[in-house]
Amino acid sequence: MKRVCVFCGSSPGNSPDYADAARLLAETLVRQDLSLVFGGSSKGIMGVVADRMLALGGDVVGVIPQSLKDKEVAHERLTDLRVVDSMHDRKSLMAVLSDGFIAMPGGTGTLEEIIETLTWGQLQFHEKPCGLLNTNGYFNQLLAFLDHAVDEGFVRQAHRDMLCVDSDPGLLLEKFRRYDAPVVEKWTD
């Protein structure tokens, strides 16, 4: 594993714990000689994780659509800033550039990104680990929903188990290193 994609909010959230977790994740990535791939913004949690990586000499690749760059939200001090045409192109390039995916607290965009990436893994489009950095139990209700979806027969347990979860970035990355993508046959009716 060389690059980890981090999906996170362009807002700082209401708790300073989210920014603290972003800084700790950046410190962990640098300590483990891993590069960061992220949405390219200077705002919110995105800006915090990128700024801390850069302050520590880490490698940071941002991927941002031209329309957002035009709104002056692009981080201007990155190691590498890739400008793409659309949000879809952004997610596709981030997936190609990354060896694993972590979602930190964020809004609907963050949720959409990690769920789509997890779905790509479920469909065996990739074999890369996906995880949640569950700061302050932020994702507990999402995890409960996924467990409910398993109970109701809409998600297989093996697919639910593909999602690595921890509140400690070092432990989450250790789960990534042990991750082995399952091969699950499609349901037939």
How would you explain this protein's 3D organization?
The protein is α/β, with parallel strands linked by helices and 189 residues long. It has one domain: Rossmann fold, CATH 3.40.50.450. It contains eight helices and seven strands. It has helices at residues 16-31, 44-55, 66-70, 87-97, 108-122, 140-151, 157-160, 169-178, and strands at residues 3-7, 35-38, 60-65, 80-84, 100-103, 130-133, 163-166. The chain has a seven-stranded parallel β-sheet, sandwiched between helices. Helix 2 links the parallel strand 2 and strand 3 (60-65).
Give the key terms.
single chain, 189 residues, alpha/beta, Rossmann fold, 7-stranded parallel beta sheet, 8 helices, globular
Give a brief description.
Helices cover 45% and strands 17% of the residues. With 189 residues, the chain is of the alpha/beta class.
Number of domains: 1
Number of helices: 8
The portion of residues assigned to helices is 40-55%
What's the quaternary structure here?
single chain
Q: Which CATH class applies here?
A: Alpha Beta
Mean of all residue-level pLDDT scores: 95
The number of strands is: 7
| Percent range for β-strand residues | 15-25%
pLDDT under 50 segments (min length 5)?
none
CATH architecture: 3-Layer(aba) Sandwich
The CATH topology annotation reads as Rossmann fold
Please state the CA-atom Rg, rounded to the nearest Å: 16 Å
Following the backbone from N to C, one meets helices and strands in this order, namely EHEHEHEHEHEHHEH
The span between the termini is 38 Å
* Overall 3D form: globular
Biggest beta-sheet profile: 7 strands, parallel
